[in-house]
Amino acid sequence: MSSADRLTRLLALVPYVVSRSSVSVAEAAAAFEVSEKQLIDDLNLLWCVELRAPDPYCPIDLSYEGGEIVVSEAESISRPLRLDVDEAAALLIALRTLAEIPEHGDALSRVIAKLEVAAGNAAQPSSQVSVQVEVRPDILLQVRAGLDEGRRLRMTYYVPGRDENTERDVDPMRLLLVDGWSYLEGWCRRAEAVRLFRLDRIVELEVLDVAARIPEEAEPVDVDRGLFRPSPDDTKVIIELTPSGRWVADHYPCESVTELGEGRLRVELRTRDTRWVRRLALRLAGDGAIVAPADLAESVRDDAERALDQYA
Amino acid sequence: MSRRKTERLLNLVVCLLATRRYLTAEQIRQAVPGYPDGSEAFKRMFERDKEELRELGVPLETGSEGEEDTGYRIQRQAYELPEIQLEPDEAAVLGLAARVWQRASLAEAASGALLKLRAAGVDTAEAASLGIEPRVDTHEPAFPALWRAVRDRRPVAFDYQGIGRSAPQRRHLEPWGVVSRRGRWYVAGHDRDRGQVRVFRLSRILGVVSGDGSAGEVVVPDGVDVREIVAASSTPAPDRRSATVRLRQGAAHGIRRWAADVRPDEGEWDRAELGFADVDRLVDYLAGFADDVVVIGPPDVRDAMIQHLKAVLA
């Protein structure tokens, strides 16, 4: 731990105790995410603060007898340090992102206003960063109704990779908002597994008069590890791109991207379903080509030949 | 980093908060335990300490009392987080907001902010839900440097690999803001090379974003809406023409999602009208549907489609 982190914690610790009627060592340790031993060491350090001139004195007096922290003298550091620009921005940008969700309730706008006042000038740069949220309000509200009432959803869902509209019954688990896109996580009764559905791809939706039944084995996706994780069983595809085809690397989750010189790229990706890669290759035409697997490259040529025949 | 240093910095903060008058370096040395006796060694250490406090956001003020040397103090009003009282539902939303950032710079800043707010008496233990679990990833390597540049109003320079270019170009930008749109990060600002407003995608910035001027140099013109600029740059031009296509029945669903006037045609086909602005973009897109779509007209679109499919076979 750096001394900066520790100093920040020490400066926050006294006000934390002062602003509460009673705080145990255990509670404070949990709030600051440190061990009780570390916290006691912090308290000892605070107790040792002394000024020698003009007259020597100890400005902080505290005790933690019986595990209960009591600060009887805190003087100048009884309030926490102001939020700095990064801290104000981290919270305000996140709050404003949440506020783009329709019918989010008014707690958000209240807390944004209070935080802007408390942060003062430090709040200003936060307005220069924003995360745009894609939502379909009609669909979102229906999904939320299904979630709140614990009812099953019936939907027509467009799968772009296969260019298919699919019919499914889904027992809703929760909504996710990841990088500006909104998703429904639910138990798909067709796949008998947890699936994510991007709300803008739901073509039609009906809240059924049937109670949702989510099986015990349904594991929510660990959002912090990323929504899409390729499986080792997936097909590995290698594509080479000309400078005009480089957008592919921005657009699809690639396992590796290698510069080949003069703006050309080689990308490797893994996918369970290769139909969308065929589409991609047809779309790229001269801007890129599948290097491997060979049979996938061959099927792209077949697709193109069949398409060309229509114009004969 | 040593306990002694932490202790010294803590003493220094308390000392400078406790004083109303400016204290000279010498007075500070006498008051704060832990400084060395030698005046050179003291000077160096004191300089580093001041720098460190400023980095933590401690508002260190310089001034002097009458004829005395430069002195230092911290004004409580500038130091202290103002009173903030949150209702339980507000505090809960704040807990949710702090979880938004994945990884890196802003995630740390968010927990730092929560720490201070807890110290101000806010209880954020109950992180709650708006029925939604939000996450934003800032994994783009260029993000932290661009955020700092925007924050400090400092011009930047970077190598940019544009689509269709065989080599990256050095670009010089006065950044106005950073925006995430449809899952991608962009920076918008005044392009010093072109003398115009430009938008850059962070994923196409190669290597390091470096400072290219002083902090405070960038002036964001009044009324600039960075989101609008980014949206305008990534929205296709309005449709000016229309193409007639055949779509195989029960297929080409992606096209049907936006096609106009879809009606049955002969055999296994439907017929539809597609508005478009750019022939190449339309043809690239339609080619992905292989033999589930046939372009009827206009002739230039039909020819472009044939050429495109031939290029797949080339």
Automatic annotation (TrEMBL), chain A:
Occurrences of domain PafC HTH (ranges): 5-116
Residue ranges annotated for the WCX domain, each copy included: 235-308
Domain WYL: 139-207
Pfam family of the protein (one): HTH_PafC
PROSITE patterns in alphabetical order: WYL
Stated name of the protein: Protein pafC
Naturally occurring in which organism (per UniProt): Actinoallomurus iriomotensis
UniProtKB/TrEMBL annotation, chain B:
A family per Pfam: WYL
Membrane-spanning ranges: none
Ranges where the WYL domain occurs: 142-208
Domain of life, source organism: Bacteria
Domain annotation WCX: ranges: 240-313
Cited PANTHER family: PROTEIN PAFB, PTHR34580
Protein name: WYL domain-containing protein
Origin species: Actinoallomurus iriomotensis
